[in-house]
Structure formats: structure tokens, C-alpha cells
Amino acid sequence: DTGVSQNPRHKITKRGQNVTFRCDPISEHNRLYWYRQTLGQGPEFLTYFQNEAQLEKSRLLSDRFSAERPKGSFSTLEIQRTEQGDSAMYLCASSLLVAGELFFGEGSRLTVL
Amino acid sequence: GQQLNQSPQSMFIQEGEDVSMNCTSSSIFNTWLWYKQDPGEGPVLLIALYKAGELTSNGRLTAQFGITRKDSFLNISASIPSDVGIYFCAGQSGNTPLVFGKGTRLSVIA
Asked: Cα–Cα distance between A91 and B78 in angstroms, integer?
């Protein structure tokens, strides 16, 4: 399978715990994006990387959130001290073109109890 | 910030009927994309539009990039049960990240 891969697919955690999600993009894609989606809403942009550089972060990305793409390949999204409001689907996408199509992974669903 | 208004929010149709949905923006976009999302899965790209006035088809799906560059339309002809899902429009201007609408939930009655 050469698509975008995300894991874990599901994560249930208690409030206050830290969680980390991993995304493996399509191999030749140099841009990697993180979006968050809550029930009944479209995906909302969080941050994106071009190669290993994090170029933009949304205001949605509070100080408890950090994303990395250390070698310009896979990326991790960490949420520290989770809150119930963090419960959502976290989507990763990658693209080859600067202005073009994003290809999404299957998402990582987070439930904070 | 940029906002996309997608309509209708939901629709129920009979199998075999044609479907139309649209998306409008408060600002101009250079790219319009249409995605379909099934429950528990990530969005899947259906059609990409890059030029005002462009009309593009993908099987039974046809999408258009409005000439004002502030809207886009998606049509599905002869709907089938597997068309069920949530359809999202997404727009982009310049180098900004894609902005998504809230989706149109399509239900098909056999």
C-alpha cells in the first residue's frame, strides 16, 4: 500500500495523559499536513511541513500540541496533558504540488475520557 | 478568515436520481477540490479544479469551478447506494492550506 498511513487508528486516553500520533506520507511527497476533524465538521488545518521545515501553524494548535518531521519523511503529532476537547479525528495528508491535491490517511481517532 | 458555505447540509434521494451540491466562498480561490468521506475513514479526493470555468468529470461525477472563482458545484448522475457518504468541498488560494466546507451528507434510498 503506497498511500498515507496513520497510527494508531484509535486511541482512548484519560484526561491529562500525553498521546502521540504518527503519519507516514506518500514517499515522494514533500509536503505533509495535519488536520483535525470533529463530529459534523469539515477538516480544520493545524500545521504543515515542507520536507523537515514546519512552515505554518494554525491558531488551533495550542502550546500543548507539537508536531515534528525530523527527517522530512514521517511526522509525529503529540498532544500533552490531553483535555476532553481534544477528542477528534486527527487527519494527516501529503502532497507533491505546492498548490494541489492533498491525499489523506485514514485518520487517528482520539477519545479523551 | 476564509469560510466555505456548503449546501445542502444533507439530502435524501432515491437510487437513480441525479444529485447537485454547491460550495460558496467569501473570497477568491485558485483551486477547488471535492472529497468524499465514509464513516471512520479519511477524505478521498474525487475531483480537482484549477481554472475558473473549468468543468471536469470523473465517471458519474462532474464538478465545475465557478467563473467568479468564489464557488464550485458537484453533480452526481444516476446515484447508486455506494454514493452514500459526506461530500466536502475544499478551496485554496495561493500557498495557503486547503480550507474545507462542513460537508453535504448524502443518503441514497434503494
From this structure: 31
Which residues of B are less than 8 Å from A6 in CB distance? 42
A97 to chain B: nearest residue by CA?
B95
Round to whole Å and give the CA distance between A75 and B110. Answer: 42
The amino acid present at A109, given as its one-letter code, is R
Chain B positions touching A105 (Cβ under 8 A) are 42
Dist CA B21 CA B96 (whole Å): 24
C-alpha cell at A102: 492533498
Q: What is the pLDDT of residues B17-59, one digit of tens each?
A: 999 999 999 999 999 999 999 998 999 999 999 999 999 999 9
Scanning the structure block, which residue is given the C-alpha cell 468541498? B89
Q: Do B43 and A48 touch (CB under 8 A)?
A: no
Given a contact cutoff of 8 angstroms between Cβ atoms, the answer to whether A91 and A34 are in contact is yes
Nearest C-alpha neighbor of A37 from the set A19, A18, A60, A57? A60
Q: Roughly how many angstroms between the first and final C-alpha of chain A, as a whole number? A: 33
Q: Kindly determine whether residue B90 and residue A44, on different chains, have CB atoms separated by under 8 Å.
A: no
**Chain B contacts of A48, Cβ < 8 Å?**
97
Cβ atoms A92, A6 nearer than 8 A: yes
**Cβ atoms B55, B64 nearer than 8 A:** yes
